[in-house]
Design a protein that fits this description.
Shape: globular
Oligomer: single chain
Strand content: 15-25%
Number of helices: 6
Largest sheet: 6 strands, parallel
Structural class: alpha/beta
Distance between the termini: 6 Å
Helix content: 25-40%
């Protein structure tokens, strides 16, 4: 079975929760799954003043970790319609991997969170996916086989480009069960794809 890395950055815990759901879906296929996060780059006093969640359990990833996996699923919140600087700074260190083609053929995917329904979810997903395509990875999104993303009965995240959730302007909304179902479904599809390619 394949090895899957769920790599994330989370300021307030919403993406951390989604990452665990992605991992749960991937594990359901029999894949070996690790959840890691990228380093916080904001100064400690700034992060504390903004009430960032700094006590997350996931270990910090290194760039060299990426080569050990068959699939890499990247999650981050949006910052003004794109991935935050913490995730960008981490991926910017992967030039050596890019040069060697070390990630060619691996499976990739993205998931995100925004404060509002129209806060840049799809653009943020594409800002992540663009990196993965440059690395030579095969992208798996969140197709409409996750029918929950089409509901009009409640606020819900999700798009064909990846799982997502809506946190609210003050972070007051946690991922709903439908959002988590989407994350699990995407994790499962990514792992199944990797299982087929690397079995």
């Amino acid at each position: 079975m394949s090895k899957v890395l769920v790599l994330y950055y989370s300021s307030y815990g919403h993406i951390e929760t989604m990452a665990q759901a992605v991992a749960e879906g991937a594990r359901a296929t029999g894949a070996s799954v690790d959840v890691k996060r990228v380093p916080e780059t904001a100064p400690k006093e700034v992060a504390e003043a903004a009430h960032f969640k700094l006590d997350q359990k996931a270990p910090i990833a290194s760039i060299d970790d990426l080569t050990a996996y068959d699939a890499i699923v990247i999650g981050s919140p949006t910052r003004f319609g794109r991935m935050p600087s913490q995730m960008a700074a981490f991926l910017d260190q992967a030039g050596g991997l890019w040069m060697r083609g070390a990630l060619h053929g691996k499976v990739g995917g993205a998931f995100t969170s925004t404060a509002t329904q129209h806060g840049g979810q799809e653009v943020t997903l594409f800002s992540i996916i663009t990196n993965l395509l440059h690395f030579g990875m095969t992208i798996v999104g969140l197709p409409y086989s996750h029918v929950g993303q089409m509901t009009l009965d409640e606020i819900v995240g999700g798009s064909p480009y990846g799982a997502s959730t809506i946190a609210g302007s003050k972070g007051q909304r946690q991922p709903s069960e439908l959002d988590l179902q989407g994350a699990r479904h995407q994790g499962e599809l990514i792992a199944k794809t990797a299982n087929k390619l690397f079995d």
